[in-house]
Backbone:
């Protein structure tokens, strides 16, 4: 009788997914290069488990019971992680109507949350790229492993959101650091390209119209 009960509990636990509501994600401020309004946000899911078809696009990791039985952590909406993440970033960073040529692309390279006995460990890697047309304005990346304590199912979801926020914050900071280190021209009035006379923003080293280096 006890054995049957254990099997029943295991079956129920295995069949019940843990929902993670990415609409509640705390989004950090946009990179300086994208703080002008009218940002088009794209999110690409490049996680190996998803691209290989081993996991659905809505998958975020595994929450384990005290018996060690794993339950999939999926988006609460049922949509792809990339879609929910793009929606959250678009709400926080502005729509694309004012200046649709300005874009921020986020590449989710890794995100695998594994929770057991009150702690979730997440391997994550995330790339961020700001562009205006063909011109690359800033590039950043974040990667690492994070451990977050939690209690119960809702705590697991909160831990996933916390690590996603951390990854985004690190990628934005990396993009801004790289942008500052690569700035060659002083801030001030826009210069003109020597080849086609197109106006050039401070810090641009290549003309976006003709490709001539400054």
Residues:
């Amino acid at each position: 009788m006890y054995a049957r009960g254990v099997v029943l509990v295991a079956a129920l636990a295995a069949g019940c997914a843990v929902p993670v509501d990415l609409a509640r994600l705390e989004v950090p401020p946009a990179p300086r290069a994208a703080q002008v309004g009218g940002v088009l946000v794209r999110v690409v899911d490049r996680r190996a488990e998803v691209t290989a078809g081993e996991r659905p696009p809505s998958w975020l990791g595994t929450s384990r019971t005290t018996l060690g039985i794993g339950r999939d952590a999926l988006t609460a909406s049922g949509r792809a992680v990339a879609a929910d993440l793009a929606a959250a970033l678009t709400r926080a960073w502005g729509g694309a109507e004012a200046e649709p040529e300005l874009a921020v692309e986020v590449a989710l390279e890794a995100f695998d949350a594994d929770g057991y006995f009150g702690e979730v460990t997440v391997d994550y890697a995330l790339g961020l790229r700001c562009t205006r047309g063909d011109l690359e304005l800033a590039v950043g990346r974040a990667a690492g492993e994070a451990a977050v304590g939690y209690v119960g199912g809702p705590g697991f979801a909160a831990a996933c959101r916390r690590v996603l926020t951390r990854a985004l914050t690190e990628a934005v900071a990396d993009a801004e650091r790289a942008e500052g280190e690569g700035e060659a021209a002083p801030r001030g009035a826009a210069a003109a390209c020597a080849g086609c006379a197109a106006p050039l923003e401070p810090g641009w080293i290549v003309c976006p119209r003709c490709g001539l280096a400054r």
Notes: The chain has two domains: 17-182, 185-214. The helical segments are 2-15, 48-51, 81-93, 152-181. The radius of gyration is 21 Å.
